[in-house]
Specification:
Length: 314
């Protein structure tokens, strides 16, 4: 059995198309098909359901795929450990991040690259479900996500920060002079929020409901960047996580106001797969995270923006 044959199988399962899988492996389609047939011959099982098009894997194929992910992950771990012995960590750290944590990801990736200049980082914006799947398939080394996700059974968790929610509102708007705001007051403003399918928005909707309100935003976005794009101009308000201030700050002509609500928001943290111990790259990222002080950096940033808002409003 060749590792290359396992790579073909993983690519085919991911792409669900022979030609795309071959392109991803930089081989011809006949070469990929022949490699998978040789794998079937060596294991004496049928792996792929074959028809005019790719129709999925057989039950035996699903089992072989799970082992393929595991074997290829062990190969990568071996390369990483050898690179450390040769004088410096190499390879690519594969980091999945839920969209609402992306603005804070650089608080980890930048010091990681500074500590390991020969290594690289690949950051993918993924849903919680995609993160769970890719961790289980050994396609990620680590992820930044919500730690209360029940699907992360068996995963290691390292807390980074708790989300704190604040109101961004025009400096000449009806809430501009307030020192704090209630969720019900925020719900009465012309709002721009994340889309209802996003985890962060569902958390916010629970906070609105706890204060007896329902948010009815005029504009919804599936990304933090798309939300922020609508804020300049003095028309819209928004409820944001304080972590977004790290990347986007407070737009000109707007104020940031604390929202009265739960003392602690949901926890965001680093998650690694159930492999024991974690991969060399994941372990290196965890060591960086322990020194990075992400919670303290974000809390200090929020305090700075609140102080600026109070002084400008006085």
């Amino acid at each position: 059995m060749l590792l290359r044959q396992l790579e073909y199988l993983v690519a085919l399962a991911r792409e669900r198309h022979f030609a795309r899988a071959a392109a991803a492996c930089y081989v011809s389609q006949p070469s990929l098909s022949a490699g998978i047939r040789r794998l079937e011959h060596e294991l004496n099982v049928s792996i792929v359901r074959r028809g005019r098009r790719y129709e999925g894997l057989t039950p035996e194929g699903e089992l072989v795929l799970a082992w393929a992910h595991r074997i290829l992950a062990e190969r990568d771990a071996l390369h990483q450990e050898l690179s450390e012995l040769r004088g410096g960590l190499t390879g690519t750290l594969r980091l999945g991040v839920v969209p609402t944590a992306l603005p804070a990801a650089s608080l980890l990736t930048t010091p990681f690259c500074e500590s390991h200049p020969r290594a690289r980082v690949s950051v993918d914006s993924l849903s919680s479900a995609e993160i769970t799947q890719r961790l289980g398939d050994f396609e990620l080394d680590a992820a930044m996500t919500y730690l209360d996700d029940e699907s992360l059974r068996g995963a290691r968790r390292f807390p980074l920060y708790e989300e704190r929610y604040v109101l961004l509102t025009p400096a000449d708007g009806p809430m501009a002079s307030a020192s704090t705001a209630r969720w019900s007051q925020a719900a009465s403003l012309p709002l721009c929020l994340l889309g209802a399918r996003m985890r962060n928005r569902r958390i916010m909707d629970e906070c609105f409901a706890a204060d007896g309100a329902v948010a009815a935003p005029a504009i919804e976005s599936d990304s933090v960047a798309g939300l922020y794009a609508h804020l300049p101009g003095g028309r819209w308000s928004s409820v944001i996580s304080h972590a977004w201030l790290h990347m986007f700050g407070v737009p000109d002509g707007m104020r940031v106001i604390p929202l009265e609500g739960p003392a602690r928001g949901p926890r965001v943290g680093l998650v690694t797969g159930p492999d024991n111990p974690p991969s060399v790259l994941a372990g290196a990222l965890l060591r960086v995270a322990r020194q990075a002080g992400v919670r303290e950096a974000l809390d200090e940033l929020l305090k700075t923006h609140l102080d600026v808002g109070r002084s400008s409003g006085s």
